[in-house]
Amino acid sequence: MGEEGRAERRPLTFFLLTFFLAVPFWLLAAAVGSGLPFGLPLSALMFPCPLVAASILVFREEGRSGVAALLMRIFDARRIGRKAWLLASFLLMPAIYILSFTLQPDAPLDPAVLPLVPLLFAVFFVTAAFEEIGWTGYATDPLQRRRSAVVAALIIGVAWSAWHLVPDIQAGQPAAFILGQRTFSVFLRVLIVWIYNSAGRSVFAAIIVHAMDNVSVYSLFPDTTLYDPLITAAVTASVALAVVALWGPRTLARFRFSRAI
Q1: Cα–Cα distances in Å, from 152 out to 90, 111, 254?
Q2: What is the DSSP string of the chain?
Q3: Are the beta carbons of 138 and 9 closer than 8 angstroms?
Q4: Amino acid 1: pLDDT
Q5: CA 72-74-77 angle, 5° bins
Q6: 259: pLDDT confidence band, cut at 50, 70 and 90?
Q7: What pLDDT score does 3 carry?
Q8: Structure confidence at residue 181 (pLDDT)
Q9: pLDDT at residue 115, as a whole number
Q10: Is 10 exposed, middle or buried (0-12, 13-18, 19+ CB in 10 A)?
Q11: What is the pLDDT of residues 85-137, one digit of tens each?
Q12: Among 149, 153, 230, 242, which is least packed, fewest CB within 10 Å?
């Protein structure tokens, strides 16, 4: 077994600890309010919590060597056997957001944001790495061993979505926005697990998908008041359902019409 299977992982404990570690950030935001770019509340700074929670649990389960092995998975691109999956990890979310953008006629394109894309990617790669080392690197495989890949993705997706609920409320988002964004997150997790499994269980690939999600939304919708997550949720749900139909709910990695992919 790989480094992620040396000891029995505890996804539920990981979820609870990740929520617990986020509480101080929620309280800080409640006391201070917003203050981050794009109108984000200070509670958005809770992004290190999944990494910290996973590291604590792995240290208890496997010691320092286990934590080191876990952190090394941030850069495990060599796991990706077919490089087409690396390309897919970069292009999936831009494609979804471009389609969402075309379906939202009131959203203007702001070319001034495009030069900032490399900086946005650098920032969001770091934040995504902190999150995905927990949600993907720690929790995904043990859940998949007990259930199907799509069920594991939905469980993580619901937990991940609920974890972001307080920051959404603290950002002053309306109920329809929150409903759309939280629904989108659940289906996005199905796509992240699909890419992860198909790319040789590469956490790096999952990080890229997560980072490109944020890069895409803030590049196309820098004015978040013009962003309608219900449209993006509908597009993402359609893509996720197509993935489940074509790659199968059990593994999300066996294409029905070709064994070579």
Answers
A1: 23, 39, 16
A2: --GGGSS---HHHHHHHHHHHHHHHHHHHHHH-B-SGGG-BGGGGGTTHHHHHHHHHHHHHH-HHHHHHHHHGGG-GGG-SSTHHHHHHHHHHHHHHHHHHHT-TT----GGGGGGHHHHHHHHHHHHHHHHHHHTTTTHHHHHHHS-HHHHHHHHHHHHHHHTHHHHHHTT--HHHHHHHHHHHHHHHHHHHHHHHHTTS-HHHHHHHHHHHHHHHHHH-SSGGG--HHHHHHHHHHHHHHHHHHH-TTTS---TT-S--
A3: yes
A4: 38
A5: 95
A6: low
A7: 47
A8: 96
A9: 85
A10: middle
A11: 999 999 999 999 999 988 887 766 667 777 889 999 999 999 999 999 999 99
A12: 242
Residue-wise pLDDT tens digits, 149-162: 999 999 999 999 99
Structure tokens at 124: 């969001």
The residue written with tokens 């004015």 in the block is 223
Please enumerate in sequence order all residues whose Cβ is within 8 A of that of 91, keeping only pairs 6 or more positions apart, or say none.
212
The phi, psi pair for 41, rounded to 5°, reads -75, 165
* Longest CA span, the chain: 55
pLDDT of residue 2: 45
Among 9, 140, 125, smallest CA distance to 66 is for: 9
Q: Could you read off the pLDDT of 165-191 as tens digits, one per residue? A: 999 999 999 999 999 999 999 999 999
